[in-house]
C-alpha cells in the first residue's frame, strides 16, 4: 500500500480519507447526475436516446419561451434579492434593540422559513383567492375593496410570498452580522458627532458587507432556482406570467417529454447561476472594508 | 486486543464505511417493482380510490396470491413518477391515466399492446362491442388496443334550481339563453356562472361551435378559425364584458367553480360528474339541477375520462390484464356509480335502470353519445404535451388577462401548426 514518506503527506492522506465519504456522497448524488444532465443535453427524443449535438442549445438560445421564462425569473430574483436584503436588514435592526419579547418575535419570523414551500404555497393560495380567500373577507368586513393580486400582479405576489417565507432566515444572518460589529465603533462615531443615519451608512452597512454578500448570493441562487411557488400557487399563469425557468424546464421534461431539450436548458441555467455568483463574489469582495 | 482503536484502525473503518455504498451500488440494480415477488404495483389517481375498487383489489389479491400496492397520485405527480420510471426501467404493473397518455405512450413504445388479450377475452367481457366507440378509438394505435377505458365522462350544465326558480329563469339550452340567464342570476354576491381556469374547459364551447382542433390532412388548427375566435371571445365576454362570471384564478386546481357553486356564490357551472359528489357532500341543501350540454352550431360536448394501460416493461402482463377485466366488469361499474355517481364507458351501463331513473346520471348518460374527444388527432402526432402547454397559456391570456381572442388564438394556431407538422 502507498505510504507517504513525509509527515505532511501523511496528514494529507489522513485528511483525504476523512473527506472520502463526503466526496463519494457528492459524486453519487450531485456530480454524476449533473454529468448525466450535461450528457442528456446532447440528445433528443422522448427517451433522450438520439444524438442531437448542439441542437438543443441552439434551440434554447433562440426559443422565445425560454427567453420569456428567463426574464420572468430574473424579475422574480431581483425582487427576492432586494426584498431579502432590505426587509431582512430592517427586521434585524429592529430586533437588535432591547425590546420585550424579541426572542418570541425572532422565532415567529423564523417559523415560515422552516415550513415547506408546498404548505406555504397552499396557505397563501387560499388566503389570496379573490372569491373564497380569507383576505378578501377581512377586507370586505372592513369596507375595503377586494384584491385580485394573483391575477393583476402574479409575479410580485409570488415574490412577496417567497419573501414572507425566507426573510426570517436573512434576518437571523443580518442579526448575527450586527452583533459582530464592536460597539466601540458606534461610540467613537457618536463622540465625533455622527448621527444615527450617518453611523448606519458609514459603520453598520460597510461592516455588514460580508453578510450582505452572502445573503445576496444565496437569494440570487434561490431566486433563479425557484420552482414551488409557480408549481403550487399559480401553475405558471395566468398565461405565462409566472413561468419561472425551473418550472419551464420541468414542463419541457415532464409534460412535453423532451428530456434532451430540458437538460440543455438546465445546463444553461446552471451557467447563468455560476456566472452571477462569481460576479457577485468578485464585486462583493472589492466592497469589503475593515476598521 | 487493545481497548482503543489505533489511527490505522480508524482509517480502515472509515475506508470500509466509505466503500459500503460504492460496493452496494455495484451489486446490481434492485429488482423492479413489477418483478417484486408477491407485489402487484398499481398507479392510481388519488380521487378514484373507491370502495368498489377496493373490493375488486381484495378479490384480485386472493385469486392471484399477490399483494396489491396501490400508489395514489394527483395526475401531474403520477406523470412525473411514471416518466422517471420509464427512464429507469422500473415500472408498475398497471397505470391509470387521465386520457391521452395511452396513445402517447403507445407511440413512444412505453405502453404494451393489449390486442392479444382482447383477441382472447374480448368477446367474453364485451370489449369492444359494449364500450362507447369513442373510448375504444382513443385507446388504440395503428389498429391495436393499448388501453381500456375505466370512466367515461362529459361536460354539461349544473345549476342551482332554487336560484333559477327564484329569479324566474328557465334552464338555458343555447349560448344566448345561457348568457341571458347568467345576467339575470348575477347580483347580491352571486355570479350567474363560474368558469374554470383549466384550459380543458375550453373544449365544450369549441365543439359546440363546430371547431375542429386539428386537421392532420390540412395541418390547420382550430378551424374554422372565425368560429373558434367567437367561441373563445364568448367565454371571455362572460367574465370581462358582461361581468356575469368572476375572473378565474390561475393554478393547478380545477375545483374553483365547484367551490363557488357549493358556497352558493355561483348559480351555474359547466362541468362533469366529478363535481357531483363534492357538491352533494359539502352542500347537501343545494337543490342541484343537471341539464343537457348547451347547443350552438352543433349538439356536442367534450368527452373525458380515465383509462388503464400496461407499461411495456411490466413483468406480469397476464396479471395486469386480469386486473383490467375485473375492474371494468359491469357489476363493478354499477357499484362505483352507486358509490360516487361516476359515469362509465359501457353501453350497457347507460341502459341500467338505476342510471335511467337517476335524474342527474340520465342527463350525463344521454349526452355521452354526443361527446367528442378533442385531442385525438393531436395525440397521434406525439406532441400533445407541447400543444397543451401552448393552449393553457393562450386560454388564460384570453379568459383571465382579457387579451383579444382573435389575435391570441391566431398566434396560438400559427405556433401549433408549426410544431405539429
Automatic annotation (TrEMBL), chain A:
Question: Would the keyword Zinc be found if you checked this record's keyword annotation?
Answer: no
Q: How does it sit in the membrane?
A: Multi-pass membrane protein
* Record-annotated ABC transmembrane type-1 domain positions: 70-280
* Annotated Gene Ontology cellular component terms: plasma membrane
- What is its subcellular localisation? Cell membrane
Q: Where are the transmembrane segments?
A: 12-34, 70-91, 103-124, 155-178, 199-221, 259-279
Task: Kindly list the biological process annotations in GO that this record carries.
Answer: transmembrane transport
State the family it belongs to. Answer: Belongs to the binding-protein-dependent transport system permease family.
**Name recorded for this polypeptide:** Carbohydrate ABC transporter membrane protein 1 (CUT1 family)
Automatic annotation (TrEMBL), chain B:
Write down the superkingdom of origin.
Bacteria
Keywords (alphabetical) are: Signal, Transport
Q: Name one GO molecular function term.
A: maltose binding
Q: Which GO terms describe its cellular component?
A: ATP-binding cassette (ABC) transporter complex, substrate-binding subunit-containing
Task: Please give the biological process terms from Gene Ontology that the record holds.
Answer: maltodextrin transmembrane transport; maltose transport
InterPro entries given in the database record: SBP, TAT_signal
**What family is this protein classified in?**
Belongs to the bacterial solute-binding protein 1 family.
Official protein name in the record = Carbohydrate ABC transporter substrate-binding protein (CUT1 family)
Q: Which organism is it from?
A: Nonomuraea fuscirosea
Taxonomic lineage of this organism?
Bacteria, Bacillati, Actinomycetota, Actinomycetes, Streptosporangiales
